[in-house]
Amino acid sequence: MGQRYQGLQDSHREFIAGQKLFFVATALSDGHVNLSPKGMDSLRVLGPKRVAWLNVTGSGNETACHVEHSPRMTVMFCAFDGKPLILRLYGQARAVHPGDADWSSCYGLFNPLPGARQIFLLDVELVQASCGMSVPYYQYLGEREQLNDWARAKGEPGIRDYWRNRNSVSLDGLPTGIVEKSGMVSLDEAEQA
After folding, report:
1. CA–CA dist 125, 35 (Å, integer)
2. pTM for this structure?
3. What one-character DSSP code corresponds to residue 14?
4. What is the pLDDT of residues 126-146, one digit of tens each?
């Protein structure tokens, strides 16, 4: 049966440190629920009640948009080897963007990744551990490098243009503010200023 905790225990931290994959869920009161898989050594446990994860450029920007309007977030880990366990972290999140004053200190927690666009800080309100006995075994074979290669090839100006063209509106038509919050403008916008 599931157990509830007010914060992360040492055993939870050890479990998280061994995970190569986690999932992030966010939602507004209506519209689409977003659920995203994350990897790439992009999560840090900052304490019993706080975690941070680095978000890189992807096909959408739903998590940032949702958190802007409703900071609820759930992060889930599953044991794909060893003892079965599902660990969920429920809490309130905020996004730190490259244009924010605390970007440098937060980004310093991670190994740099090309295309980094936000860091999410999750204040954990509840930790739930459940059995995970229905989760199948999977073998970790390594990281995929295609997204890093794509971001490096685009370069910073190309990433900013991608944000403007592909990440500035959510699936539900809400503005994400990614270009404005990045603290940088594209080359076209700089020429117009």
Report:
1. 19
2. 0.93
3. H
4. 999 999 999 999 999 999 999
